[in-house]
Amino acid sequence: MAEVVVIGAGVGGLACAARLAAGGHRVTVYERSTVVGGKLGRLVVERPEGTYRFDTGPSLLTLPQVFDELFADLGGGAPELVPLDPVVRHVFPDGTVLDSSADPGVFLDRIDAAFGSDAAADWATLWRRAGRVWTASWRDILRRPLDSPAALAGLAWRFGDLAAVAPGMSLRGLGRRHLGDPRLRMLLDRYATYTGADPRRAPAALVAVPYAELSFGGWYLPGGLATLADALLSRCEALGVSVRTGAAVTRISAAGGRVNGVRVGSAFVPADVVVSNVDALTLYRDLLPAPRRLGRLADRSLAGFVVLLGLRGRTPGLAHHTVLFPTDYDAEFDAIFGAPARPAADPTVFVTVADDPLVRPEGHEAWFVLVNAPRHGIGPGAVDWDRPGLADAYADRVLSVLAARGFDVRDRVLFREVLTPASLERSAGAPGGAIYGTAGGLLRPANRGPVRGLFLVGGSAHPGGGLPMVALSAKIVAESVGPARQVGTR
């Protein structure tokens, strides 16, 4: 049995803690915040008309089989998952609406009806290629450690897999090669933002992201996705994990090339294994300084600007998830990734409205409104989101954009809450409010740290951001540590 310290009670930290405890280890989780969940946050607003519950982080769950396996391995049933159809409703600048579906045949029929048979044929060709990329990624990347560029290059891909992955091609380039309709290219570009990247620079291999979403579906948890953190906390407690909130780890201690504990406030806590569920930048800058590793983490992902709305009445024309595209998508990326960076004047707007009585009073709606945004900070690639008046002014702008695209709800707003990249930096310890840590790419910080006994889990480490990837990272780390009987023999 090893003494394991997990730093951070995000989904990755909780999932890894539970897996290690199930493997016979004694596990303690230290979380700087007073609540668990990390970026999978929530906000509860009590009003005279009733209670509103908002997810403030991820709003879509994919790859449900990952969570079925996780909870089966932990000896408990997975939370109830509700399939979404459409997975996402896309509203394009010309007013065309395309509802995505987890049934490939249905989706092709919808593309045919909206854009014509040539567009449907183009998507079918891209889909076959995306399937090859997904198969190679699932087999060779997403479920195993990937510690270096050499390991990535040495994977045993068949020639056809390499041709599908298209090293050196961007996701934008792949769309231009296969998709004649500019609206379908716009839809494909959006998936680069799932990894925090600019589609003009993101690798073509990210075509696996829409394949995963549209093959295995998009899912919702009644009461909101934050209930996933509640379920993981419950499994941790049942397995004997000690979860201590309001306890910030300030340093990782190592001697002789191996971790030996952490410092929590002024107290030293010995440990045989330390699992870091903080951003890799924070780990290597503050907790266990490693200057040589910091350079790889400089390319930060985009951030998000969120407006939470409590609305009177109900809104026709919206699905659970609706994306409203701008006329000039490139102008948005020029603003967000520019130097200087700036909030986009006419951004893509992502609206989540759950038809769930657990999250809103009868006759009302709880809206989660997200736009892509530059990270928080000072410098050419960032925006100081704490600048007085900026957040409220930009929230007004977002509501104006919604109005211009046919959803003017300003006279129905009962209250609003604004969350900026600076808010995420403070609440979840995400440097700059960057949602995914480093931006895009296949190679993220390795799960095994530079000293023995140190491991990285969560969205800033391999295999990347998003709830299923985070859960996969937890399995990779738990398998790398091994069950209790094997620790000490490695």
Task: Describe this structure as you would to a colleague.
The chain is α/β, with parallel strands linked by helices and 490 residues long. The chain has three domains: 3-41 and 69-77 and 223-297 and 437-481, FAD/NAD(P)-binding domain (3-Layer(bba) Sandwich); 85-217, no CATH class; 302-433. 34% of the residues lie in helices and 20% in strands. The strands form five sheets. It has a seven-stranded mixed sheet. A five-stranded parallel sheet has the order 9-2-1-13-19, covered by helices on one side. Strands 10-11-12 form a three-stranded antiparallel sheet, with no helix packed on it. Strand 11 (258-264) and strand 12 form a beta hairpin. The protein is globular and about 65 Å long. The two termini are 13 Å apart. 54% of the residues are buried.
Question: Can you give me a brief rundown of this structure?
Answer:
The protein is built from 16 helices and 19 strands.
